[in-house]
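Below is one such record:
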Amino acid sequence: MCVTLAANATCASATVVTGTTVITGENVGAGGPRPTGTGCGTGSGNNALYYLVTVPPGAAVNVTTAAATLNRVLLTEDACGDPACTFRTDTAPESTRLVNATASPVTRVVVIHNSTSTGTGTFDITFSYFTPTIITEIEPNEDGTPNTGASVITGNDFDATAIANATANGVITADTLINAALTPAGDEDVFAIRNTGASPVSVTIQTGAPTADVCPSADTGIRIRAADLSTVASDDDSGPGFCSRVVVTIPPGVTYYVQVVEYDDNAIIDPYQLAIDFF
């Protein structure tokens, strides 16, 4: 049976997005070939729909998808036909944040396809433009004595002193981008995030380097810590490239601590961005 392809079934004919937009009922069954670059996952099958998203200087775009039954994958590329995808997720809710920390507009490619080579279904996709609060980290924001030698993403600079020092950057209660660096080798960063509301709130925390939506060469880890020093959640490589992304739910009136480390705690990452998104 012949299927009429959607207008945005190829990157060359991608749907152009330049402002907050909600698109409903997108049908992957009418999609075209998937990206095949490094980090894009399997390139078998078609069912891919493309969106060309322009992000103004100093702005950000939250990209979120929703579907009743469709199991889907979200990819991003810097440009059509790039040899690598900058981000891939098949974890619900499939979403990402595009960040432009430069003085000129940038364009990114967002791709949605089904998670198998044959499944079909529809989805909705929302592009929410906003100007985030941007801060620059203040050191020390860990225990004050960076040490190398921690394995993988465990870190070794988080203690009661790190909790006290985390407030050097204020307590973060809304969407925020943090310009930061892990330097010297062994440095770790800790930031306080708080739910000031009366109901639980979910927060997405993502690293990228040099900006929050890309990670061509850095390798980070994130741990979400409670005030008693216990680990609430952690992630190694769910962000772009080998950077990190974790979603955590904060109870009302509770403060958690975001600990950012370099994988194996023995190299510098300068600069990186930490994106914190309350939803």
The helical segments are 160-166. The mean pLDDT is 92.
